[in-house]
Amino acid sequence: MAYSEKVIDHYNNPRNVGTLNKDSKFVGTGLVGAPECGDVMRLQIEVGEDNVITDAKFKTFGCGSAIASSSLATEWLKGKTIDEALSIDNMDIVEELALPPVKIHCSVLAEDAIKSAINDYRVKNGLEAIVLEKSHH
Amino acid sequence: MKQPIYLDNNATTPLDPRVLEAMLPYFTEKFGNAASRNHAFGWVAEEGVDYAREQVAKLIGCTEKEIIFTSGATEADNLAIKGVFEMYKEKGNHIITAVTEHKAVLDTCKHLEKNGARVTYLGVKEDGLIDLAELEAAMTAETILVSIMYGNNEIGVIQPVKEIAAIAHKHGALFMTDATQAVGKIPVDVNADGIDLMAFSAHKMYGPKGVGVLYVRRKNPRVKVTAQMDGGGHERGMRSGTLNVPGIVGLGKACELCRLEMESESIRLSALRDKLETTLNKMEESYVNGNTQHRLPHVANISFKYVEGEGLMMAMSDLAVSSGSACTSASLEPSYVLKSLGLSDDLAHSSIRYGLGRFTTEAEIDQAIEVTQKAVNHLRELSPLWEMFKEGIDLSKIEWAEH
User: Fold this and answer.
1) Does B295 touch chain A if contact means CB atoms closer than 8 Å?
2) Start and end of every NIF system FeS cluster assembly NifU N-terminal domain (chain A) (predicted)?
3) Of B11, B125, B234, B253, which is most buried with the most CB atoms under 10 A?
């Protein structure tokens, strides 16, 4: 299968690979997917004043499209407020990376990872977790 | 664009230039129909086919009359299994095969189940070999055919065909084998091995695509299959259709080259394969899949834990290999062959198959080792599972979200 140039770029030069201190109360961690399904994403955000995301890091086990989706997500998250981050839709990722239909689940997983990281941060800081609509995989 | 190194010789092999040379005249000046009995064009084409039949027969130790030319191994598998089922249905309706067979066998059996066949799919042991006691126990008075592949396409393990044939014959059943990956690579002798029907194709042994063989035993016992295509009654009535003369000539030449070069070539290939495999197996958390004793000389199947096969192949774009990961398929199911060895889904997703061939050089193997090591290390840097493993977290204890 041929990959789009943007997927290849993110794959070869992944942005924001790494690990934030998951025990910090400013850090939210989302771990989604399953090894048996062939993809696992871990996405972390660090939240500063005014609910602005100051840093984002990821590590992903998966195919090129999964790696590119999470790399792109971290790029988009930096500088956004939590509310803005919540509005990131998986179809935005599909469009930006020109993912074929068979790879749409990679973008869904990235959206799940963002929401799961935000919820982790919220719960740590005494806020209620946002009820997520069950995404369709 | 620089051509990647070709290490997918189980999928197909390049045509040997010596095979091409033998084929060329049969496209132009020797274009006749081998079935034309009344003029020189037909005779010349028929001579080419007859000579190819001899070359094929010599490689597998049979007589020329036992060779049925087909369009490939898939057609040969279909003809053998469906043909035997129809021909021998008065005797019984039970067929035994194994879960690691190629789809050409499995799907043919599934088709026959809809038409009244009862099929037993034997499981395999951890090393990919079937359990002979299990086969013995599955045999019934109704069993007409045992169809077990010679060498596996994904992991290269060689089944104990002689013993399987003996068990089949003891119970009055025929023994058929899909030998697509084995013929031309290791010695295959239909009489020594007790094979009644055998399918294989030219393009896995440096011959052209679109041509294959069904071997059908003529003596002890005389085996017959019902034709699956109606027409001019070619190939002793078992396979109608104008013969693909250039393809058949190429297949013959390919068989001859394999026969003459097999001994030295298998030593060379297994040395290269062993070098690749032992070096890569020294990497942390890498696992060789399948039995390493009873195995084709040119195949290595290795899982690199905590990296995903499709992502890995993307990082190894300098190598043309294949993976047991099926991330691209709609089902997201990894290789059924690897899973039947009892491999967990994540290890099956992490597997790479290297298929060496006649044109593989030592320099290419050295490069393949380097590219693989670099890619695996790179992806492990990116892998949350690798990080967790390194921190001593038991991944099986984590509740993963179903998706």
Assistant:
1) no
2) 2-125
3) B253
